[in-house]
């Protein structure tokens, strides 16, 4: 089989979709599936890049910026046709949301191939961004045309599928395949946590993600203020960084929080290895799955996450078995869950062990790649 993935960005550009799609491509290529990727460079890189990485043929179209999260890339449609001609794929695997995927509708070469659409999330119309809601009026007809044309659609959880208005007309051709992660090597360095400030053994809390409004980091900071025997390492950068730092100062917890920013893979692995609890306090359905939850489960960490209605987070985390689910946006409830884990180390260990076992059985990249390749073979009539 020969598969061409159409994505938005590609590592080292940060993001859960980017990391997952790259790891999926690198995994299936090891199992006799020739794989290519067409995506964009990081915004501001004005030249096209092409290289082979871990057996995957990668082409990144020059990206001159973004407009309402849409890459500005005049070369992309030409590169799509050229890559199909050069690579000769048997099918296209399109990762959405991504406006550049719409060019497949206008490409005769692309339309001759079967498509799989990997539905990572809806466009978040509940977001507090009016321009996004307005832009969706133009986006939606193209989105629905892609879904209609696709041979199959992959949703990452039943919960998310059931709550998605965009996918509702296409449920009969939608398959559930979760996101996944491969194994990782033991950490090779230590991690810099906040000072103990007098605590003998503080509860080490880890949160990883873009510092954006829907991630709920302000709720986590307020919960930390109510959990005096805890320190927090917050990994990630974003538009809310300054406001969150000010909040930590205002409520008197600045000494117990380290804003680590974007860190390299080695330090991130060390953070997961040395943490006691992982927190995902997101407040909106924009958190469609939570790939960082799998990173925490893989590391054997118990997780505390928001039970967001219609999100896949409640599928990933089994409440009381692999972690604790809490009411979104409620700092008191979150603080209560953290205090429970701080007081009961045996419970923490049981949750972490169960989470690691579930990652291995259901969310390992091998398991996910096997399901994905089976879908490829079915669409191509090879099964």
Automatic annotation (TrEMBL):
Protein name: Glycosyltransferase
InterPro entries referenced in this protein's UniProt entry, alphabetically: Glyco_trans_1, Glyco_trans_4-like_N, Glycosyltransferase_grp1
Keywords from the UniProt entry: Transferase
Pfam families: Glyco_trans_4_4, Glycos_transf_1
Domain Glycosyl transferase family: 205-358
Entries under SUPFAM superfamilies matching the protein: UDP-Glycosyltransferase/glycogen phosphorylase
Signal peptide (UniProt feature, chain positions): none
Molecular functions (GO terms): hexosyltransferase activity
Domain Glycosyltransferase subfamily 4-like N-terminal stretches: 15-180
